[in-house]
Amino acid sequence: MMRYFAIFMLLSVFLSSTPARADDGSKASCYQPEALCLHGLPAAQYQMLLPQMLAQPKPNARPVPVDAQMLHRYSLYQIDPSGITLYDAPNGAPIGELPAGLVFVGMRQQRDGWAEVRRGAWSPLSQLRGVPASTYSGLIFNTPPTRPIAWLLQPTQPSSAPGMPPEPTAPLLARYTPFYLFATARVDGQDWHLVAPGQWLPAQRLAHLVPAQRPEGVKGRWIAVDLTEQTLAAYEDDQLVFATLIASGRPETATGEGLFRIWARFQWSTLFGGSGAEYYYLPSVPYVMYFDGEIALHGAYWHDDFGTPRSQGCINLSLSDARWLYAWTDNFYADAWVYVWRSERDEQAD
Fold first, then answer.
1. What is the predicted pLDDT for the residue at 9?
2. Residues assigned a catalytic role
3. Structure pTM?
4. Structural domain containing residue 168
């Protein structure tokens, strides 16, 4: 009897330290009789992970503080993408135009369904759309994370086992929630991650924080931008101190890879460029840090799509994250290194 008990304990230890994966990528991760499986893992492995999941339900980090007043100041107005006419007063005479594209304006005052967007220049309110600045912010680490971390990119109901449909009664997990990854299983060519007791998420809905290797010659404070996962990490030598989601350049305006240094910094700047449908005019862009010619790290008040490539080549950060990074790279580290790279990702089914 003791012999069988010892064999079972050895098997439990082995299973608890090995991520569960299907042999051929086409079947569920647990082949054993159902009585020996829990939530898609061998029961012994799941039972070993359970106390860890309960003790560490979220990453050992604190969120970057969010300043509601700052977000309100930068909640500007997007004009009609086809362009608008400006008038000298409400229902007045035309005095000019704002071109088509991605164009934002402030609002000096409102009157009778009109808005003064520049001194003496008015537009119908119906041609303006208020865009609230994103409340998202990243994570500050006092100690290294104890296991891999990922952010959820869209609201998702978790599944009780890898490869299974979402549980109808499961809570809807919020977008941008950061999770520890406790186990990984592959089903039908798709990776799934165990993020909480009985909660599995498909890997393609997560942005993974992949550790970057410090480039040769880089010391002190430096920044790593992972274009594959759309994440940014800040390091002190080899210690992670901050991580967040970003939005880099779209495929047609891709952000270049390489090792750069911040060469200019501005607390705010007006960004404009492009032509036709690609024209953009973005006033008062905060916390601008140029590192590759005209490519910069900066805050973005005009969208809430962090974790997805969508810029003209710059690295878009939430306002809260941009302010934190701007302060962290001040003074002695004003010319901090910026390492733009691509982590490797397994091919995953949609």
1. 33
2. 298, 314
3. 0.89
4. 153-203
Query: In angstroms, what CA-CA distances link 251 with 153, 213, 256, 257?
Result: 19, 25, 11, 13
Residue 19: count of CB within 10 angstroms of its CB: 16
CATH number at 260 reads 2.40.440.10
pLDDT in tens, 158-198: 999 999 999 899 999 999 999 999 999 999 999 999 999 99
Confidence of residue 35 (pLDDT cuts 50, 70, 90): low
Q: Provide the number of structural domains found in the chain.
A: 3
Q: Which pLDDT value is given to residue 11?
A: 35
Residue at 5 is within a domain: no
User: Measured at the alpha carbon of residue 25, what is the angle toward residues 226 and 54, in degrees to the nearest 5?
Assistant: 65
| Main-chain phi, psi angles of 319, to 5 degrees | -60, -40
The full length of the chain comes to 350
Q: What is the pLDDT of residue 33?
A: 59
Verify that 193 and 241 share a domain, yes or no: no
Instruction: Check residue 34 and give its pLDDT.
Output: 59
Q: From residue 55, how far is each of 15, 17, 31 by CA, in Å?
A: 20, 18, 28
Q: Which residue has the higher pLDDT, 323 or 25?
A: 323
pLDDT for 24:
34
Place of tokens 């390492």: 339
CB within 8 Å of 225: residues ≥ 6 apart: 231, 232, 246, 248, 255, 315, 338, 339, 340, 341
> Does the residue 12 lie in any domain?
no
Residue labelled with tokens 């089914």: 349
Cβ partners under 8 Å of residue 45, min gap 6: 12, 15, 16, 18, 20, 183
How wide is the angle at C-alpha 130 spanned by C-alphas 76 and 295, nearest 5°?
45
